[in-house]
From TrEMBL:
It comes from Tessaracoccus lubricantis. The keyword Membrane applies. It comes from the Bacteria. Keywords: Amino-acid transport, ATP-binding, Cell membrane, Membrane, Nucleotide-binding, Translocase, Transport. This is ATP-binding cassette domain-containing protein. GO terms for molecular function: ATP binding. The lineage of its organism: Bacteria, Bacillati, Actinomycetota, Actinomycetes, Propionibacteriales. InterPro entries: AAA+_ATPase, ABC_transporter-like_ATP-bd, ABC_transporter-like_CS, ACT-like_dom_sf, MetN_ABC_transporter-like, NIL_domain, P-loop_NTPase. Residues 2-243 form the ABC transporter domain. PROSITE patterns: ABC_TRANSPORTER_1 (PS00211), ABC_TRANSPORTER_2 (PS50893).
């Protein structure tokens, strides 16, 4: 389990103070995959550096299974750091070492004997699907394979937390999905032991593997929660980004008012539309729609056209009565999409 409490990092750029992290708190329990998403400059890399104490936070606490890294010094800090396996966008492997020796490297640093190292490295390479590649050199591997080696290396010290910083940003879509599947399988293998934190700017990563997500903006977490709760409301930033319909209408018909509706789980959207049409006595047209399966729950986001002459406010009311979130589309804030 990783617990971050009121983490702050202030940089000084000349006379200017930059609050790269401005009071970040989050908890990732063992067995869970948490995504942190944010635009360039939001503070993502600063968060990674402060979580691992590569950069000292200005204030706040980072606890791994109850041990506060910000309070630990030298030896204690080195031991505590081993509780975190770190995977970056590029695996940064030693080119002159075999794959097996790369994976064994963290064990070498802490004085584990040769045979034990080899055994562990082979086991981990098998786990990441590279059982045959131990004697190869990094230059002989594809980007996806190198990333697998990086993951095996991060697992060498049996960490309690796996921290991924943009793990798939340099990979093509298919390889991305293979790496994401691997991350899920690692969590599933040790659900009681492993908490996973993934820093990314890709919504796809959040959709595919995260149980919960935080949106980082200007060093602050502005939205956070389980995937199924952050997408419940139409005006949420994460909701708009995860459901994929732009918050504003590109084409606004002159003979109709646009209404957006978001229904989840048991509230099937389509009978809802038929029911509302009947109640209001107007034929509602569906102009756009997306159906997403997120963390096991179905979400339907539809954009409806309510013909002029029909009461759009009543349409909104009826849909809300049925348990959906609904609103006139023009009221939706226009903001820069996240993805
Ligand atoms: N060493 C530093 N000295 C001064 N300012 C810094 C330093 N590192 C980061 N910053 C500032 O802190 C803010 C957050 O930067 P950070 O690199 O964490 O963003 P990011 O979310 O990782 O962005 P990107 O997606 O572009 O990698 C930025 O305003 C950046 O200029
Ligand atoms: Mg960064």
């Amino acid at each position: 389990m990783i617990t971050v409490t009121d983490l702050r990092k202030v940089y000084h750029q000349g006379k200017r103070e930059v609050r790269a992290l401005d009071g970040v708190s989050l908890t990732v329990p063992a067995g869970s995959i948490h995504g942190v998403i944010g635009h360039s400059g939001a503070g993502k890399s600063t968060l990674v550096r402060c979580l691992t104490m590569l950069d000292r936070p200005t204030s706040g606490a980072v606890e791994i299974n109850g041990v506060d890294l910000t309070a630990a010094r030298s030896d204690a800090l080195r031991t505590a750091r081993r509780r975190i396996g770190l995977v970056f966008q590029q695996a940064n492997l030693f080119d002159s070492r075999t794959i097996e020796a790369n994976v064994a490297y963290p064990l070498e640093l802490i004085g584990v004997g040769r045979e034990k190292r080899r055994e562990k490295a082979r086991e981990l390479l098998g786990l990441v699907g590279l059982g045959d590649a131990g004697n190869a050199y990094p230059a002989q591997l594809s980007g996806g394979m190198r990333q697998r080696v990086g993951i095996a290396r991060a697992l060498a010290t049996d960490p309690d937390v796996l921290l991924f910083d943009e793990p798939t940003s340099a990979l093509d879509p298919r390889t991305t999905d293979e790496i994401l599947d691997l991350i899920v399988s690692l969590r599933d293998r040790n659900p009681d032991d492993l908490a996973v934190l993934v820093i990314t700017h890709e919504m796809h990563v959040v959709k595919k593997i995260c149980d919960s997500v935080s949106l980082l903006e200007g060093g602050r977490i502005v939205e956070s929660g389980p995937l199924t709760s952050v997408v419940k409301h139409l005006d949420g930033r994460l909701s708009q980004a995860l459901l994929g319909i732009p918050p504003h209408a590109h084409v606004a018909p002159s003979d109709a008012t646009l209404v957006d509706v978001l229904a989840s789980g048991d509230h099937a959207a389509l009978p809802m539309i038929a029911h509302t049409s009947r109640e209001v006595g107007a034929e509602l047209a569906i102009l756009a729609g997306s159906v997403e399966q997120l963390a096991g729950t179905t979400f339907s986001h539809l954009r409806l056209a309510v013909p002029n002459g029909a009461d759009a406010d009543r349409v909104v009311e009826e849909l809300k009565k049925l348990g959906a979130d609904a609103r006139r589309t023009a009221e939706i804030r226009e903001e820069e999409p996240l993805a």
